[in-house]
Amino acid sequence: MKRCLSAVLLFLMALWTPAAAFAESSHLTIEGGGANEYDYQEYVFLSGKPILFTGTFKVTVSSSGDTTTTKITYTLKDKDTGLDKLSRSLTFLEKKADQPEMGQTVRTSQVDKFSESATINDVKYQLVDYRQSKSVVIDKHPAVNYYSGNWEGRKIYQVEKDQGRLTVDISGTTVGYDHNWGRSETQRMTQTLSYEPLKETVTGNTPSINWDGQVDYTINLSTDREMSYHENEPVDISFSGGYLLDEEGSTAVLARYDLPYASSDGTITKNSRRDQDTLSLNLKTAPKVQRLYVPAYQDTRGHWAEADIARLAGVKAWGNATGYFGPGQPITRMDFATAFVNALGILSTDGPAGNIAYTAGYPNLPEPGQKSTGSRSGGTGYNGATGIPRNKKVPPEQPPFSDISPQKPGYAEVKAAFESNLMQGVSPSRFDPYGLMTREQAATLIVRGLGLETLAPSGSVYLPYYDDGQISPWARDSIYVAQRLGILSGDAYGAFRPQDLLSRAEAASLLMKSIDFLQRDLKRDYRDRLLNLH
């Protein structure tokens, strides 16, 4: 299988393959550049002076078994004059190793082939050696994938044939997450440059002295998804307004450099005189918008949870969007599973579902409540926002529980929740779809879905509620995390009411707070804090 993907459809490639469609660390930014659908931009420091290059690139991906080959070619020139040129071709080989019982995958890559040639200020730089090793571990959870990685490398350039040599040592780290409401990856990279002339007398503009420098990069790639309410102006209209889903990709690059001072003609005459500054690049994709379905419930107007109920109805979390919602009624296990899967999404082992396009290097987020009619290369299609694999030839369905049949509405979501280890049955053969949920059960499921159980301290957990003694031991850690994240807390009287049944309105509020956490709090932690945007 082989695919050539143009820069218009694929930028800041996150090493996408059919076997690993979830967002992962991008190889394209390994050179310190950024892109959107139209442009690639990169500050080049080979001459000891920062020069902004722009241009195009193309990515080719092929896979065989557990090995993926990614080739990226760049054609660039300096933005100011267009006289300086750079062409680069890099091929990465990557292998993956799955640890299913731990829900983790380790992906290790290295440079397989390379070529790079640049002409800057009439001096030619030819890459003669490039070694790089990169490894990323992905920790998979029902609603979120988290990942972290490191890489080390070295590039050696021949300068004006045999007149000089430039060595660039590279060290980097990455951390990121991926869920159906957004993605973010922040890379930190340090490039240490060391130049030495190889001849006593050099010609032209070739540097004649030893010099060294350092560039520290912070790079963020994100895809953001936000819901906003838009009121209709006419008075005589069947619905007063509705929610709009807005999706946008962005890339931010900060490059802090410490280099020898170069004169206006680019000549370096003294290494001890330094030039220090910070450069930045910011690129955004064209926004993608989608109006959400507008519910017509007769019993939610003016209810304290009306907005949360409506937003979730827009992504088909509740099934029927007309008639009576029953906000005060307790929610069943099946309805909670359906709402969770359709609202937060369950990531399959192949990653989020949806039509494949690209923002910030990652596939677009799945269409909420929609089903993909096509199939990805590799022969597998995917259902809606749940990421559930859907084969062209569907084998006979084997229900995981005896009390919910494949024909029953909500079956697919219950099965997804079970197979992702989000929810279990009340016995090996029974799910109890019409059983009711308590507040402490709901807190446990939400925190489990987010994969953040380990945020609770070890040992006995202090909970600031009057009815602390009524909280089940197995729920204490999750309740601690839920209240820390602002997803679920006690009432106005200081009680958590762990054994109380969760109402459908409370479930709507809980799920929307979870989505808000994924959209905003995670982004602040992974992007804004690491980029010092506060």
Automatic annotation (TrEMBL):
Residues 364-406 are annotated as: Disordered. This is S-layer homology domain-containing protein. Residues 292-354, 397-460, 462-525 form the SLH domain. Keywords: Repeat, Signal. InterPro entries: SLH_dom. Pfam families: SLH. The lineage of its organism: Bacteria, Bacillati, Bacillota, Clostridia, Eubacteriales. Residues 1-23 form the signal peptide.
